[in-house]
Amino acid sequence: MAKEALKPQAIAGDFSKIVDKEAMRPSNDAIKWSGKVPHVLTVAGSDSGAGAGIQADIKASGALGVYCSSVITAVTAQNTVGVQGIHPVPEEFVAEQLKSVLSDMQVDVVKTGMLPSTGVIKVLCHKLKQFPIRALVVDPVLVATSGDVLSGPSTLDAFREELFPMADIVTPNVREASVLLGGFDIKTITDMCSAAKSLYSLGPRNVLVKGGDLPESSDAVDIFFDGEHCHELRGVRVRTHNTHGTGCTLASCIAAELAKGSPMLGAIQAAKCFVEEALEQSKDLAIGNGPQGPFDHFFKLRNHYARPCGTRFKPRDLFLYAVTDSGMNKKWGRSISDAVKAAIEGGATIIQLREKNIETKVFVEAAEASLEICRSYGVPLLINDRVDVALACETDGVHVGQSDMPVRTVRQLLGPNKIIGVSCKTPEQAHQAWLDGANYIGCGGVFPTNTKKNNPTIGLDGLKNIFQSSLLPGVAIGGIGVENAHMIVEMGLPNLKGVAVVSALFDRLDISSETRRLLGVLETTRIPEEKRLEASE
Ligand SMILES: Nc1ncnc2c1ncn2[C@@H]1O[C@H](COP(=O)(O)OP(=O)(O)OP(=O)(O)O)[C@@H](O)[C@H]1O
Ligand SMILES: Cc1ncc(CO)c(N)n1
Ligand SMILES: [Mg+2]
After folding, report:
1. Residue boundaries of the structural domains of the chain
2. Measured between alpha carbons, how far is residue 215 from residues 148, 188, 211, 219, 259 in Å?
3. CA 8 to chain CA centroid, nearest Å
4. Which atom, in ligand 1's list, is nearest to the CA of 144?
5. 39-283: in CATH 3.40.1190.20
6. Is residue 322 a contact partner of residue 504, using CB atoms and an 8 Å limit?
7. 109 contacts: CB under 8 Å, gap ≥ 6
8. What GO MF annotations does this protein's record show (predicted)?
């Protein structure tokens, strides 16, 4: 059957009339920060292509959960081809920005990037003396990988004599280390170690010489010198052209980890891990036509935010809500996914897998098989209770009961775009579900049922009570079938969008034809005139 034919087009009476109160919901997307927040201030240049510079610093800090303020020292016109122009910010205005942030915002760590002039370096050193911070990370940005000069030779003395002695760590790449040491040739790891030691003698507490550009190295090797030992930090070299901004990102990650309270070596290792993983996840990213592209700092959020819009929740999908039951499937000798396929072919508009006594491995396999079927019909698939299974299989959402994982926690784990439903028996529970960020409520049992024993029924009155007060759309559940589904529709409650059924579909020989019969009842039942008027009041 064609996908469209399965979707109810015109729903009986005003059953479909939506009072969309979704817009009134409070946002659940904010990170919960209370009290002091780890804070990095980046003092660097803007990269219009946003792969490096200030933009990389803010993204890297954000990805690691650290607040990042920014003092801009220069604006560059830059892309994946190279640097087309540089517009330095006047020194006095760099000073003004520094004062604004440092005098007010409880900065933990300052990270520096492009410092285009001696004047800017002097201003920075002066302000750092005036407003002490916990740590200073200096990435001595001199030349972009494209070969363009970002900070000329005239700044070298200021770097070496004024800024380095204040730094907790300096992080030059091999080329920068060489320039800072007056042209010292760096070709091998032994050379990197010697360079690190020479730079250490200029006064910083630690030195990291980055080997991203080390010729003929199959690994990505950085050398860390802490004043006593030279540590060789070896990572996998990712085969990609998308390495623009690795240096800025690494230094910002070190700063972010220090701000969170990590010791120096731990901060460097965490930073290196982050860069490697981000490059690996961004290998095939195609942005720009030049030789060195940006990478994705937010690769971890991709599953949360980059879902196709099609998976967003639509209340009308609740119309004929089929909930599986492993006991029934066993009894009739069919697999979960076969049952799901039959229900969809009969007209089910959303599926929930409710499997109570099942091994996790079997559940994951069943969810994967069901998801493939659901996707091919454009029908959302939810998992009952098991958030881990939903995450593992990337299903469209989860349905939880009052004693399952709290809805707020589920929302945090699943992100804003997944569907979350909650079983509610009272208006208070329904209100809480709305506050916690649920998308819909499932209310019942309406009629007595064998599927859930010892489950007190709420009756049609209870159902009415909840839906009249609820801000969420939802379904009725419990003992509903072909014989009594009309009673639910006839209630004419605007946000009661459909019926959820278990045994009426799955405890039957022919799931498809039972589903079709139920769909017929839902589509043909008319809402009595007086109920319609009541709903529109
Ligand atoms: N292809 C790669 N695979 C894995 N790690 C890499 C790769 N390229 C660079 N790195 C790592 O990224 C970090 C930054 O080093 P790199 O030498 O690239 O800095 P940089 O030249 O200052 O970067 P940029 O100037 O592009 O911001 C180091 O830890 C380095 O080992
Ligand atoms: C603005 C800016 N800062 C740093 C770098 C180094 O990658 C760059 N290319 N651009
Ligand atoms: Mg660099």
Report:
1. 39-283, 315-536
2. 19, 8, 9, 10, 33
3. 33
4. 25
5. yes
6. no
7. 39, 40, 41, 133, 134, 135, 136, 137, 255, 256, 258, 259
8. ATP binding; hydroxymethylpyrimidine kinase activity; metal ion binding; phosphomethylpyrimidine kinase activity; thiamine-phosphate diphosphorylase activity
Ligand 2 touching residue 76 (CB < 6 A): yes
Q: Which two tokens stand for residue 144?
A: 């972009």
**Which ligand 1 atom is at minimum distance from the Cα of 248?**
27
Based on the residue annotation, tell me whether 247 is a catalytic residue of this protein: yes
Which ligand gives the minimal distance to the CA of 114?
A: 2
372-402 per-position pLDDT tens digit: 999 999 999 999 999 999 999 999 999 999 9
Strand segments, DSSP code E, in 216-257 are: 219-225, 230-236
Q: Which CATH architecture group holds 315-536?
A: Alpha-Beta Barrel (3.20)
Does the C-beta of 272 come closer than 6 Å to ligand 1?
Answer: yes
Q: How far is the CA of 512 from the centre of ligand 3 (A)?
A: 62
Q: What is the pLDDT of residues 252-311, one digit of tens each?
A: 999 999 999 999 999 999 999 999 999 999 999 999 999 999 999 999 887 666 555 445
Note whether 39-283 and 315-536 share their fold.
no
User: Which of 59, 111, 127, 210 does the annotation list as catalytic?
Assistant: 210
Nearest residue by C-alpha to atom 9 in ligand 2: 144
Q: How does DSSP assign 151-179, residue by residue?
A: S-GGGHHHIIIIIGGG-SEE--BHHHHHH
**pLDDT higher than threshold 50 for residue 168:** yes
243 is catalytic: yes
210: CA distance to ligand 3 center in Å?
Answer: 9
Among the options 243, 249, 349, 449, which is catalytic?
Answer: 243
Sheet containing strand 83-88, edge to edge, reads 83-88, 67-78, 39-47, 109-112, 135-138, 169-170, 207-209, 219-225, 230-236
The closest residue, in CA terms, to atom 20 on ligand 1 is 247
Q: Is the CB of 47 under 6 A from ligand 2?
A: yes
- Given this model, what pLDDT does residue 96 score? 98
